[in-house]
User: Fold these one by one.
Assistant:
Number 1:
Amino acid sequence: MRTYLGEFEQLLLLALVHLSDDEAYGTRIRSEIEARTGRTVSPGAIYTALDRLEQRGLVASRLGDPTPSRGGKRKRHYRLEPAGVQLLQRTQEVLARMSQGVPLARLLRAPRDSGAL
Amino acid sequence: MKRTPVLPSLLLRSLLPADAYECVAGDLEEAWHNGSLSRAGFWRLAMASIVECRRPRLQRTHVDRDSDRKRGDSLMRTILQDFSYGARLMRRNPGFTAAAVATLALGIGANTALFSILNVLTLKPLAYREPDHVVFVREWSHRTQTAGFSLSVLDFIEVSRRSTTFEYVTTYSYWSANLTGGSTPERAQAYRVTADTFDMLGVPAALGRGFLPEEGVPGGRRVVVLSHGLWQRRFGSDRSVIGRDITLDGHPHTIVGVMPASFEFPVFNFKGELWVPWQLDMQAILADRGSASSSVVVARIRPNVTMSAAQAEIDTIMQRLETEHPDTNAGRGARLTEMGRLDDESAGPGILIVAATAALVLLLACANVANLLLARGVSRQRELAVRAALGAGRVRLVTQLMSEGVLLAVAGGVAGLFVAYLALNALRASLPEMVVTTQPNIDTLGIDPMTLAYAAGISLLTSIIFGVIPAVRAASPMLQEGLKEGASSGGGRGTRRLRAALVIAEVSLSTIMLVSAGLLVRSYQRQQHVNPGFDPDNVLTMMIALPDYRYSAPEARTQFFQESVGRISSLAGVEAAAFVNVLPFSTYNRGGVFSVEGRTDVERGQEPSADIRVISDRYFDTMRIPLRAGRTFDTRDAAAGARVAIVNEALVRRHFKDQDPLGQRLKLGRIGGPGAVVTIIGVSGSVHHNQLSEQPTPEIYFPLAQSPPPMMMLAARTSTDPETYTDAIRAEILAVDPAQPVYHVKPMSRLVGDSLAAPSFSASLMGLFSGIALMLAAIGIYGVVSYAVNQQRREFGVRLALGARPRDLLTLVLRRGLLLVATGITIGMLCAFGVGRALANILYGVGPADPVTFVSVTVTLATVGLAACCIPALRASRTEPVTALRE
């Protein structure tokens, strides 16, 4: 079992945090990510990733009622499990630790001499 | 609520597991309905979802796979894997892929374009209700066993009264109407049709209505129905035209309807721009049987009556008429022809030959791609052997190779559609005017659903043809050999023989095609060099139709034409000008029967026929038609003068073999009929009228003043480019009569050129196709020989090391390649003799076994074959023994 989260997985888990339990299904997750990051993702990608997260016990899902605007298809609602919150927190910490003291802005202004390496 | 895009939804349903489908499709539909997703977006996200859900995951375990299989989608997954593997292979070998796809695109494109043409010409039904029940009733001559196009109006009346198997019997007559009022006078293609014609066709008006029964009887209201095209052009698509009056040949007509854009009537004649009810006075016609004219009769067979039953009834009616009215009906029957099938009789074998050629090109393309795949199959033998060793079943390997073939075919098909699209666009722009104005459904020429389906069909078919052999071969049980042998060998004896057979087949197919193309091109050239009997260069032609209401008096017509021709002749730059009722190559014609006075060997009803020409004085000068004997018409031949005629050499040859025709007298029309008697005063050279490949027909010329027709064509010989004189000539005509339109303005040389459109079309298409074939064959030869050379590098190295000279290797390789070519040419030639014989009846001035064609094809193919072998042969002779042995 992997003990870290990929970038897309983090985005998904964070989206679940932003959305209430009732809103946390495919379309809303997709628009949440799109609105905040400008990234368009396919529903297929979202479900495959969420499916994997569910297998790892990081999220849980339940089926909603059929909706006419979805052609009578049911929604699948997701919510974060405690394990998911923990792993998300740990991943963020790791990232934060790695970025500590990294002067990105300065690096951008004065690129390192590539010949020196 | 907007409808969800059907196709992507279907794809989602069939390609995703049920639970994933519900979520993904639900999301997409929700986004679609709340408007945040465009159609393109829907497609993109659906496809991305399929890829995402289907992509094999690294972390998936065998257990996952098993559970997938239990869900029953393992076959789908396998196929998808095969396809994605194939796609990766295609990307990795861009050279191979480009060669194969381009080859297929040419083959599929040529076939698709041709299918679209054939579809319009023969397959597509006419846009009427149940078009297979709409028939022409055509006059049939028992004596000559031939069918005309029209029927006597007398017979039309009788058939419509007596028949029970027809729902409607209608008829129409051609009318060239002068449409005045508004800016410029215009000539419109009009038809007088019986009032129930639109009901018979089962096409209602798009705007307003068709005709009422009371409008179709003598004295009925003058009404008119417009075509969509005329309504758009002349009335700016104004929906309020209904009820308005327009002036046709001086009479006001009320517009009662506008037909839909797709409506075309009649077909195989100039398409109508407007229709008026034909107010036939049946009583008057039946009372004066002798002077009845002919018209085209179109009928609808009742829904549950068969064609043969209707024909049987027509036969009975016509037989009864023969006994009731022997004077008018002796020897006359009638034939039914389904309207859409009329063209089948006249459609030359040309288009079928072209279609067969296109099929051959496709076959050649398949052979080439098969060859490419075989060659690659050899180099992939090791990969396949490894897979087989690791447990891949034979079926599994074949499906994998086949799906690679399908991928190639799909890519080739898409590219081929593009090729077809370009070809059809080019074709549409260069269609002869005659085709545009008469061919039904021609507006629909292009890529339509039928054509798309056809292209998809042949793409799949080709993938099977070129994919099966290499796939089965490559996956054969001898695979284990692939593991044992060194990498550079391979390509067993069987594969090599198969590839040699493919090359021989390619060469012989190209031989056949080159020979056919050569014969057609030479036949076309011969036709181009036929002397038409006149000089078509620097002559401008146009048509003028005088309306009856102002020109009912013959003197008025003579006056108009003579004054116009006088004014036009005096224009600067016009060398000579004349009027004639029917110009050569104008696609019109007029004929009549006659008899030579004093001869008794011809019975009434058996009189010979001739084409009838009415000309103004300087016609022979203007056209540069030579006068062989006697004199031309001049001022002596006025309306009141003695009736005279000039005949052409073809008529003299047929009827005055060893007699001086000058001074002989011809009785026009039936023996004992009311026709005039004319004296022959001159003999002219013969003129080709319809086709340069046909013999000139007998013609009789009459002077304008003695029988002036209402419709004439102008020929004006100019000193420079004739088309620059159009406006000046039109102005002179308008000066004589400001309400008189001229139309069909064209240089004479274009009329002659248009008549060659069919042979030039088949010759150039065949030329193009056989060029492609030659190229494909050359590639095939090169591929096989150069592959063989590569395989034998080691052998060549040994030979060189043992003392062979490079030249020996060169000849060795050349000999082997040329043997293939020679075998192919021989087989091809034998077949080409047969094909040539099939072509014989569309060839002109060239025999089916034309030696020039056969010899030049042999030389061409041999040269190309030699060139294709040369490069690999040279490479063989330059083999470095050491490197070759070290490999």
Number 2:
Amino acid sequence: MPCKNCQEKPVFIQISNVKLCKSHFIRYFEKKVLYTIKKFNLIQKNDKIVTALSGGKDSTTILYILNELSKKTRRFTISALLIDEGIRNYRDKTKEDAISFCSQYAIPLEIITYKKELGFTLDEMLKISKQKPCSICGVFRRYLLNKGARKLKANKLATGHNLDDEAQSILMNQFRRNNETSARLGPITGILDNKNFIRRIKPLYLLTEKETAIYAFLKNFPIQFTECPNAKQGYRNDVRNILNQMEAKYPGTKHSIVNTFLENLSNLKEHYSHQSSLSSCKKCGEPTSKEVCQACTLLEEIKSILKK
Amino acid sequence: MPKVFIEKTNETRKVEAATMKEILQKLNINAEEVLTIKNNELVTLETKVTEKDSIKLLSVISGG
């Protein structure tokens, strides 16, 4: 059976069993990104958007689409920010891909390294700390992305988070009874406004990980389809496996989780906006709900282990 | 038997299968987690495969 819109060979079959060829899949994907941007009001005129770029399929895809949209509409500007954690045989390769992509499309790229900003690479931290890699990496990446986006004078940070990432986060927070963290999720992150906190937007929010991989493959982006060597060790990996098994058996599961969550998100944000407060970390000045931010606390822990 | 390159584990396996779907079933790989490539083109699970085809399974999971 050919594509539903033409006689070409299909490359993708939707949950509803609709078949799409290469060009109609690309059209479907880009339309869905535009729909997401409009539906959730992710971009306004004169926005200065920095895209968190890892060099992988998701961030490369969203950077490409936002850059095309920026050129076409001239309503906002786009640049890229890469956090180099120092993961040997992984980030060094994806960093090269990111540099080559930004050079090909003339997109300004800023690179921030753990080593320079924190004093250690992630690989060095993992030799010292007993914490899981994703727990350390998550804290420092968020910290440096916010700091870097502010340095670049951006008012929004676009990330490549897709529907799978969001469904996993929702379930992880449910499993850990962590509603307040869920309140920070959604297509635009955060509960409270703070001048030092750059809001994150997720234009791939309604597209799955597989759809994004298909788009990146069909567009022939200079990327590698490799997995972070630390990814298997995280809690997220277990949740991802459960979700993928459920999706294979009951197609539409991930969409249902995210759509149900969206129905409740405004109530969650409203509820926690009364209970949360954002101030500045007394050590580094970054936004935090505590006296000292998570990144400074974690870095102190790592330094204290080294002193022993 | 078509030869299948599994990119995630960097190994090549011979699999007795007539379609992409059968390949994934025999290798116990979830279709959610891979792109199915036949002769450098992305194809759907129902696509037929033969011994002459070059088949690759690309991992869709990147992890950041």
